[in-house]
Predict the 3D structure of the following.
Amino acid sequence: MISELLINAFLVTIMLSIAIALIKTRTVIFTVILTSAYSLVAALMFITLDAVDVAFTEASVGAGISTILFLAAMAYLPKKEEESISSEVIPALSCIILGGILIWCSFDLPEIGQLTAPIHQHIAPEYIRGSKEDIGIPNIVTSVLASYRGYDTFGETIVVFTAGVAVLALLEKKNTTKKNKSQPKQEIRKNA
Amino acid sequence: MISSTIGIWNYWIVFCLMMIGLFLVIGRKNFLKKIVGLAIFQTSVFLLYITFGKIKGGTPPILNESIDTIYSNPLPHVLILTAIVVGVATTALGLSLVLRINSEYGSIEEDDVSSQDLLDYHDDIETGKNLGLKFKK
């Protein structure tokens, strides 16, 4: 069992180095590629943590579609990130303090993989039993997703639909107002 | 000792990853980098949830014939499946906002955008245009 945990520890360390590289890089294309790699390593992590459904969703949606969206948006955006004028000390400090508090709290969390942890006591055994006897689908994740928590999936569909409508509204407005609105603004600025 | 350190090592790294994501969101002024930070934060939270659901010696939660199989907890998996798809929707919305800002201001740096806003505001005060409208709101 310790080898399994060691593989986990190794993979999360890779993720950490990718994240640090993300902080350092200022080129947009590297940022997009590193984000994609991050999602892919996360998908590997999910496989070692027994979440196979999550792994292939993350690999296809997180590493695939997100990357395509980023690349499509990148075509219209500046290719380099500017060095910011204001200092980054306060955000960094607050993040470090918050992270320290979280790590301090982690000593109270149950160790990874313990069967006695509270999360495994409540409703999960019921789902595992019911999936076989009540619903008859061998994949427990599917039966919970589509049957026990079907309303969650319905809400998810609504969220995705709303986001799609919002994206359409935002991108359509770009074409109509571009000629009318941005011209006078620049003229005023030249006069000033 | 080593086993217990590895037992919570994942949590520590996940917290570090979350903080890196948060730093990218609040520390960087580039809007695209902020959205990337949001994605990193999201994926780290997914990892935390899936880590909770893991059981030592368990198998993926797909039923098999033998009686004494231990299945990992399927509930976090379901929640995270939903969250991944919602996360992509959020990313798409954020990116379209960034595109819109870029077409309006010609820049996606927070400093540029806010300085242009300030300039516009002073122009409005000087010319007296839109002044009543601003104070009414």
Observations:
- Chain B has five helices and no strands.
- Chain B touches chain A through 92 residues (CB under 8 Å).
